[in-house]
Amino acid sequence: MMMPENGHRAHGFSSAAFLDSDEILGELNLNGDETFMDAGCGDGHIAIKVLEDYNHKGTVYAVDIYDASIDDMETYKQENDVENLINIEADIPEGIPGVEDESIDVVLLVNVFHGFKASRKLDEAVMELARIVKKDGKIAIMDYKAWDVPKGPPTKMRSSPTDLEELFNKQGLKMTYLNEEIGEDIPEGKSHFLIMFEKE
Ligand SMILES: C[S@@+](CC[C@H](N)C(=O)[O-])C[C@H]1O[C@@H](n2cnc3c(N)ncnc32)[C@H](O)[C@@H]1O
User: Fold this and answer.
1) Could you point out which of 29, 110, 115, 187 has its C-alpha 20 to 30 Å from the C-alpha of 152?
2) Which residues surround ligand 1 with Cβ inside 6 Å?
3) Against a cut of 0.85, is the pTM above it?
């Protein structure tokens, strides 16, 4: 269990300390009324930023497998009287309960996707993301480049944009955007890529 800056509990490193969430959210061009999901929200700092700094009026989902993260998001919701926040404890590849088919405009996963490779649940995760996203919605994945560098997950857990494109194509999703110059400055260059998919 980690203790991120906002005091919420998280199962893994919060990206708040080393990624610029405004840089990430800026890629999404949110207009404020979308149904947005922070999938694998951890400490929830991205969902909270969308609600607070972007004055989001649409529904925001915060989803995580770690019950303590979701408990802390529930406390945040109640203490701040945030009506448009829905927190769900779920193992994404197993299905996100309570989320209807084709109901989400934008799903964002920051430093989450490599975990599906580690648990060998890549196809299941992509199928679930494909299920929940609207026909004209987008799935945005930001993750560590598939480099053998010290910071981040082991190299064998990482996927390249080409790997992801193959996986998503199999589920009828096409790549609509790729930024390979995003994230933290490390000696090798920018640490991350951000890739987006939509239904064909
Ligand atoms: C490295 S943290 C990143 C958290 C947050 N997205 C951020 O950028 O700070 C990965 C998060 O994904 C969650 N996670 C991992 N596997 C998951 C799964 N199968 N379903 C839902 N959440 C998962 C973990 O519990 C953890 O909170």
Assistant:
1) 29
2) 10-16, 40-42, 64-66, 69, 90-93, 110-112, 115
3) yes
